[in-house]
Amino acid sequence: MVDSERIQNPWMASDQTSLQMNPNATQRFSPPPPQLTSNNDKLGIAERATSAAGAAFLSAVIVNPLDVAKTRLQAQAAGVAYSHPLSNMISRMSCFGPNMMFADLRCSPSCTRAGFHGTVSLCPPDCFRYKGTLDVISKIIQQEGFTRLWRGTNAGLALAVPTVGIYLPCYDIFRNWFEEFTAKSAPTATPYVPLVAGSLARSLACATCYPIELARTRMQAFKETQIDKKPPGVFKTLLGVVSNGKGTNSPPNSLQGYRVLWTGMGAQLVRDVPFSAICWSTLEPTRRKLISLVGGNDASLLSVLGANFSAGFVAGTLAAGATCPLDVAKTRRQIEMDPIRALKMTTRQTLMEIWRDGGFKGLFTGFGPRVGRAGPSVGIVVSFYEVVKFALNHRYTTS
């Protein structure tokens, strides 16, 4: 019995020896708290990646409407004009006279603000201008349909599954490596391990899957200009980016054309690395504290779920709020339609442009939906991932 307890709690061996040497020390002895780490070494990289991919799939579907709202608000602040899909065609036909055409340019069939220009039923520009998160969601439902709130979900899934499948397992591996290293050589650096591990893991995941992120932002930012036509998917969106980039090369350079697929990756890294650093350095101590309150290593499945979701929600909210200006810069660089300008722009120049155009308010455009998206998203991803790991470890332990 004692031997089995020593195997599960290695700290018991030295303490039992000290108790035998000094029996009077029993009153002063208080065993150190058990380590909150589970037997993660039993899980392979494939199992970690699978559980992380499942978490990413669930999160991407649930929070996508807030992601669309955030991107639309930021794109509008960058100068993207939202209007009825037929408005450009009607303006080109207006030279034939207002009575030569008949069209309905109301923002929705139920809109009562539309007036008539000749035979054209026309809504005022305010009907197509977004004023906030709820206004974006409401107008997308009225003008484009409920399913458009999930525009870019296929790109989000194509992005989230490999990204998180790389991100979380690599974070686990880097954290374990650095904790072992700092425990032996630099114990004072241990609190900074989550910050470094999260930054490295996020950089690796971002560089690997960035073109899909570019496609998702463009799919969410722009309306489809042709009615009753299926909007382009990830592949067609990326083809359009490449063809636009190649068309501006003189002489043509195929490598330059494909380089545009990584337009704005610097801004993405500048946003994601601080986000991960803030997120993990907040999440780790928070969830360890919560798990210790609900039983430590003896915590139940529901306790693990609740502790990880709560810690992830708090960490994601703080990180998203702090990095919102960098997210605005990232969106602006990704929706830039001039590939030459996009390749020459830097994140610093973009932030200065945002400050010049909108000041402090401009730097925090889309703050509400970004924070509202990131908190639940991080909570869902981390809690799902940890629960799957908990279940797999429990299965290995019992078998």
Secondary structure elements and pairings:
Layout: H1 2-8, H2 11-21, H3 45-77, H4 87-93, E1 103-105, E2 115-117, E3 120-122, H5 133-143, H6 153-185, H7 193-221, H8 234-247, H9 254-259, H10 265-293, H11 301-322, H12 324-334, H13 339-344, H14 347-363, H15 367-398
Parallel strand pairs: 1-3
Antiparallel strand pairs: 2-3
Helix pairs in contact: 3-5, 3-6, 3-15, 6-7, 7-8, 7-10, 10-11, 10-12, 11-15, 12-14
Describe this structure in words.
The chain is mostly helical and 399 residues long. The protein has 3 domains: 1-32, no CATH class; 39-81 and 134-398, Mitochondrial carrier fold; 83-128, no CATH class. The chain has 15 helices and 3 strands. The protein has a 3-stranded mixed β-sheet, with no helix packed on it. A hairpin with a 2-residue loop joins strand 2 (115-117) and strand 3. The longest helix has 33 residues, at 45-77. It is a multi-pass membrane protein. It holds the Pfam family Mito_carr.
Q: Residue ranges: pLDDT <50 for 5 or more in a row?
A: 1-21, 23-41, 89-102
Largest sheet: 3 strands, mixed
- Secondary-structure-derived class: mainly alpha
Gyration radius, in Å: 26 Å
Total number of beta strands: 3
What is the CATH superfamily classification of the largest domain?
Answer: Mitochondrial carrier domain
CATH class placement of the largest domain: Mainly Alpha
List the total number of helices. 15
Our count of domains comes out at 3
Strand percent estimate: under 5%
Mean of the pLDDT scores?
77
End-to-end distance, in Å? 20 Å
Strand order of the largest sheet: 1-3-2
CATH architecture of the largest domain: Alpha/alpha barrel
